[in-house]
TrEMBL record:
Source superkingdom: Bacteria
Gene3D superfamilies the UniProt entry points to: NADP-dependent oxidoreductase domain
Keywords of this entry: Signal
Keyword Plastid assigned: no
Lineage per the UniProt record: Bacteria, Pseudomonadati, Pseudomonadota, Gammaproteobacteria, Oceanospirillales
Protein name as catalogued: Aldo/keto reductase
Signal peptide extent: 1-29
Database matches in InterPro entries: AKR2_Oxidoreductase (IPR053135), NAD(P)_OxRdtase_dom_sf (IPR036812), NADP_OxRdtase_dom (IPR023210), TAT_signal (IPR006311)
Length: 307
C-alpha cells in the first residue's frame, strides 16, 4: 500500500526535482507537484515508480570526465523526482562501476532499487562475476538479480535463487530484448517461479503484448520494459512529426513522454527503464510517469503510426 507519508515525500521530492531542473534552465512548462505513478510488485506488494532508468551506453563514462559529472545531475533529477529503480549489468562496459561510484558519492544507495544481472556460461563464472559486481556496485546486495538475455538460465536462475535465500538479492528474474526471445521467455514464465521479467516493448515493437505481458500479469510477475525508445532510434523517426492531436489530453508534451506512456499503459508493466546521460532528458522522461495513461484507442493509433 502506498502510504500517505510516502506519497507526500514523493510529491515533495518531485516538486524539488522539477524546481532543480527549472533552475538549471531546462524548459518544463506547466508541471504540477503530482507524484510519479506507482505500481505494485506482485510477489510482495512493494510499490515501484513506473519510471526507472537504464544504464547501457548512457552510463558508460570515464570517472572525472564531463559525461561522468553530467551523470551526477541525471541521478539528482532522477531521485529528487521520486524515481528509484536503476537497471545495469556487468556487460555494460563499466556502466555498473560508474553507477556504483555515483550512488555512493551521492548518498543514494539506500533509496535506489538496484537491479543488475548475471551474464555467464558456468556456475563458476557466475560466482566470480557476482563477486565483482558487488565490488563495482559498491554494495553487498541488490534489489533485483536477473539472468541476462536468458543466458544459461537453467544454471543461473537456480544460482540467483540461492543468492536470494542468502539475502543477497530481494528478487530474481530473467531478461531479453528481442522478439526472438519471446517464445523462450513465454515457456520460462509457464514453468518457473519468477519475481520479475524484463523485455522490450515499444510503439514500433509491441509483440510482447501478444502473450508475454498478459502471461506475466496472470502469473503475478513484475515486468520491466527496456528499449522503450528502440535504443534512441524512435527519436530519429519522429524528428519532423508533430505529436498527435490528443497528446495534451493525455498529459504528454514530448515524444519521449509519449513512448514511455505507451509502455506503462499496459497493465502488466511495472516500470519502464529509459536510459539517458542528460539531466534535461531525465526530467522529460520522469514526466512520462505523471498524469493519465493512454486509452486503448490511443495506444492502437501509435502502433499504427509506427508499423
Ligand atoms: N537484455 C537486456 O537485459 C537489456 C537489453 C537492452 C536494454 N536493457 C536495459 O534497458 C535500458 C534501456 O534500453 P536502451 O538503453 O537500449 O535504449 P532506450 O532507453 O530505448 O534508448 C536510449 C537512448 O535514448 C536516448 N534518450 C533517452 N531519453 C531521451 C529523451 N528524453 N529524448 C531524446 N533522447 C533520449 C539516449 O541518449 P542520451 O543518453 O544521449 O540521452 C539513448 O541513446 C538499458 O540501458 C538497459 O539498462 C536491457
Amino acid at each position: 500500500m502506498y502510504s500517505r507519508r510516502r506519497f507526500l515525500h514523493a510529491a515533495m521530492a518531485t516538486t524539488a526535482g522539477l524546481a532543480l531542473v527549472s533552475r538549471a534552465g531546462f524548459a518544463l512548462a506547466g508541471e504540477s507537484a503530482q507524484a510519479l505513478r506507482q505500481r505494485a510488485i506482485p510477489a510482495t506488494g512493494e510499490t515501484l515508480p513506473v519510471i526507472g532508468a537504464g544504464t547501457s551506453g548512457s552510463f558508460e563514462a570515464t570517472p572525472g570526465s564531463d559525461k561522468f559529472n553530467g551523470l551526477k545531475d541525471v541521478l539528482k533529477v532522477f531521485f529528487e523526482g521520486g524515481a528509484t529503480l536503476i537497471d545495469t549489468s556487468p556487460n555494460y562496459s563499466g556502466a555498473d562501476a560508474v553507477l556504483g561510484q555515483l550512488l555512493e558519492e551521492g548518498g543514494w544507495r539506500e533509496q535506489c532499487f538496484l537491479a543488475t544481472k548475471i551474464a555467464a556460461d558456468t556456475r563458476e563464472a557466475a560466482e566470480a562475476q557476482w563477486a565483482a559486481s558487488q565490488r563495482r556496485l559498491r554494495t553487498d546486495h541488490v534489489e533485483l538479480l536477473q539472468v541476462h538475455n536468458l543466458r544459461q538460465w537453467k544454471i543461473q536462475l537456480p544460482y540467483a535463487r540461492e543468492l536470494k535465500e542468502q539475502g543477497k538479492t530481494k528478487y530474481v528474474g530473467v531478461t531479453h530484448y528481442l522478439d526472438s526471445g519471446l517464445d523462450e521467455l513465454e515457456q520460462i514464465l509457464r514453468t518457473e517461479k519468477l519475481d520479475f521479467i524484463q523485455i522490450h516493448y515499444s510503439v514500433n515493437s509491441p509483440n510482447a503484448a501478444r502473450t508475454v505481458l498478459p502471461l506475466a500479469q496472470e502469473k503475478g510477475v513484475a515486468v520491466l520494459i527496456n528499449r522503450a525508445f528502440d535504443d534512441g532510434r524512435l527519436f530519429a523517426s519522429v524528428r519532423n512529426t508533430p505529436l498527435p492531436d490528443w497528446a495534451e489530453e493525455a498529459g504528454v508534451s514530448s515524444w519521449a513522454q509519449m513512448f514511455l506512456k505507451f509502455a506503462i499503459s499496459h497493465p502488466a508493466v511495472t516500470t519502464v527503464i529509459p536510459a539517458t546521460s542528460r539531466a534535461d532528458r531525465q526530467a522529460d522522461n520522469l514526466q512520462g510517469g505523471i498524469g493519465p495513461l493512454l486509452t486503448d484507442a490511443q495506444q492502437r493509433s501509435l502502433i499504427g503510426m509506427f508499423a
